[in-house]
Amino acid sequence: MNDKLNFETGVKDALPTVFGYIGIGLAFGIVGKTSGLSVLEIFLMSLITYAGSAQFVMVSLLLVGSSIPFIMLSVFLVNARFILMSTTVAQYFRQDSIWQNIGIGTLLTDESFALSMNKLNFTNHRLAPSWFHGANLVAYLTWALATAAGGILGNLVGDPKAFGLDFALVAMFIGLLYLQMITDRSKAFGFQVVMVVIACALMYGLTIFFSDNVALIATTLIGCFLGMVVEQWRSR
Amino acid sequence: MAITMKVMWAIIGCGLVTWLSRVIPFVLVKNFYLPKWLIRYLSFVPIVIMTALIMENIFTHHAGSLPTVNLDNLLATVPTFIAAIISKSLIVIVVVGIICMALIRLVL
After folding, report:
1. pLDDT tens digits, residue range A211-222?
2. Which residues in chain A have their CB less than 8 angstroms from residue B2's CB?
3. For labeling, which of A158, A205, B89, B97 is most exposed (least CB within 10 Å)?
4. Same domain, B58 and B96
5. Do the chains contact at A93 and B30, CB–CB below 8 Å?
């Protein structure tokens, strides 16, 4: 990664993340197809809803015949973390037009969020809309095409898991987390290790009582609060 | 290539809900100053949320019992993490992760 913030660099910086979208996108397409969705429905869901893991939730709820309001509520809960990520990213675009802001927010993903947080450490804490649009568009198009491809392949291929592609997403987050820890100089490395340990403990503890998605949001809300407390205590 | 009405409404409704969660914060932050404590609070979002997303793939929730370990993912996490320390390159980390997972599934 370098300090360039143009569209092309955004596209280039996002390339390592496409494996994650392809792996999970193919899996989603196959799951969607085998759950009775048409390829067109899968493609439109990826283009319009564009909600990653929440799309799996939609398919499983549609399959058991849940009502539309209930499906919407579930999707909102699964994606509530976007409120925190968008608020974090938006601070870097206050000077840009409202349309640029809406454009960035519309296609924001976990991956482009994590990527942008890494990028900050190379650009003296600046981001630019064109860079973000580049990274977001790579993600959007790859996701839509991968899910449609998965739908077309449908029952033809076996389990996409056999090729290890589903792990691409986890591997990417491991990479982005580690790179974030070694490049973010606003927080000491040791302190960041402490934060990772706290987040792991919270996530495990909360997963005992709550579903993964609720645990994820609760971990983020409580973890950030504990981070503030520990930071305050360290600076005494 | 059929689209049922129900699926279409689900796609539109969920799309709206997701879009609003993504965009409203941008509109609010653009128009209002965030208090200092909130900016400090948000500075922990990246590290906490990335850790939680990784953990979500390693442990699975079960109602009424302890979370179970996803052994494949846990095993593949170790070489992937080592690849991160050695290479410091996202593309290398992801490729090592995929290959390790394919090998683990082949053996287990």
Report:
1. 888 898 899 999
2. 38, 40
3. A158
4. yes
5. yes
